[in-house]
Amino acid sequence: MKYLKKIDPQIFKAILGEIKRQDGKLELIASENFVSRAIIEAEANVMTNKYAEGYPGRRWYNGCQFVDLVENIAIERAKKLFGAEHVNVQPHSGSQANMAVYFSMLNVGDTVLAMDLRCGGHLTHGHALNFSGKYFNVIPYGVKRSTERLDYDEIRRLARAHKPKMILAGASAYPRIIDFKKFREICDEVGAFLLVDMAHIAGLIACGLHPNPVPYAEFVTTTTHKTLRGPRSGVILCRKQFAKKIDREVFPGIQGGPLMHVIAAKAVCFKEALNPSFKKYQAQVIKNARALSDALSKKGYRIVSGGTDNHLLLVDLSDKNLTGKDASRILDTAGIVANKNLIPFDRRSANLTSGLRLGTPAITTRGIREKEVAKIAELIDIALKSPKDTKVLNTVKKKVKKLTRRFPIYKDLMMDLKRA
Ligand code: DSN
Question: In this structure, are 227 and 291 located in the same domain?
């Protein structure tokens, strides 16, 4: 980045700061990860210059032979990875992937059944200020109070009562396996089509460590940067019969020119995910999440639903005299990054929350395993027990630093930057 350093030292410095922050803190935000150097190189290059509105072989601009190559490779790899009939790799984000499905299949005002945000759903699953909540009649379903797991009988009851045109399965903060077959059965009973937003668990699904929704759902959307460990972006998988509708809705429906450099990076992400080593990584992500859940549980923290089947867990802080907001701020001071999160039936507002969401994709990428996870649980506990004790928080911070030094991330990038 020597050119950047010379031309725009302010931005150079900020990027350097961000690399150091990512390397020097323990990243437990469940939706974040660290991409490979190959993905960074695929994304940061001259493909950003190219306009390619349209699809491979039928673009509105000339000079698309190389970006066509890239997009076709990305599509074929994603099809293979998830066993999909048709793939659109152009959505800029998960939200836009979801928007394309809504707008291609629904009319404004149509009824949709989707997971309640207060129980783990996403903004695009019906938040009042989001396009989904503004333009569609979204009926929320939640989890059972006693188990904090999806209640398929209740989902069926709601589906029968409201006759939705679409049922949306998938979540941003749900630690358990989702039964897509059951969702399919409910959809068939009421004549709805099924959209699965698998953004959080796409990496696990790619490796067969969570059931694959593709055989059950007409549409599956995902981001590519969470467990899938690719660039920030989105993808739509669908059945062949909807291919034209979806493609038309992405472009020209809701997007213009695709980001070809990001599509190149997505292609590399899918190649990495097809490699057998990716399965080992995902299996370790789950082992680490379980280890974190068990260790915190032993220290007296209540884990929502009693544990986890995937890459994340939700810690209930209601009996700790701490809000999720306070807890995440305290942990950040100590070098541990996590986010506040509503827990099912939370009595606090979305701004304060009673929960803390913790995920293991990023720490696992840097090589951390169960033994270190137990240590991390201990550090979390020490920090949360002494929220106002600067001395204690500083000691935790030092221990976090020591741990991150043992498991560096972006060592080569740091070397390059030092040389710049
Ligand atoms: N914002 C993401 C998350 O943190 O779960 C969802 O897209």
Answer: no
The residue type at 287 = K
Does 386 reside within a domain? yes
What residues contact residue 107 under an 8 Å CB cut-off, 6+ apart? none
The count of structural domains within the chain is 2
Do 163 and 196 contact (CB within 8 A), yes or no?
Answer: no
For the stretch 179-225, pLDDT in tens is 999 999 999 999 999 999 999 999 999 999 999 999 999 999 999 99
Catalytic residue (choose from 5, 144, 232, 245)? 232
Helices (H), 115-237: 131-135, 152-162, 180-190, 202-206
Considering the candidates 25, 165, 226, 366, report the single residue annotated as catalytic: 226
Question: 3-state SS string over 273-294?
Answer: HHCHHHHHHHHHHHHHHHHHHH
266 located within any domain: yes
Per-residue pLDDT band at 150 (split at 50, 70, 90): very high
Q: Which of the listed residues 27, 28, 29, 31 should we mutate to test ligand 1's pocket, taking the one with most ligand atoms within 8 A of CB?
A: 31
314 and 260 in a common domain: no
**Torsion angle (degrees, nearest 10) of CA 101, 104, 105, 110:** 90
Task: Please tell me whether residues 124 and 191 are part of one structural domain.
Answer: yes
If phi > 0 it is left, if psi is from -120 to 50 it is alpha, else beta; for residue 307 that is: left
Give residue for tokens 């994603």. Answer: 78
55 sits in which H/E element: strand 54-55
Domain range for 225: 40-274
DSSP secondary structure letter of residue 152 = H
How many angstroms separate the Cα of 91 from the Cα of each of 54, 223, 224, 254, 259? 13, 9, 10, 9, 9
- Residue 254 sits in the same domain as residue 369: no
pLDDT digits (tens, 9 = 90+) for 322-357: 999 999 999 999 999 999 999 999 999 999 999 999
Tell me the C-alpha distance between 316 and 301, whole Å. 7
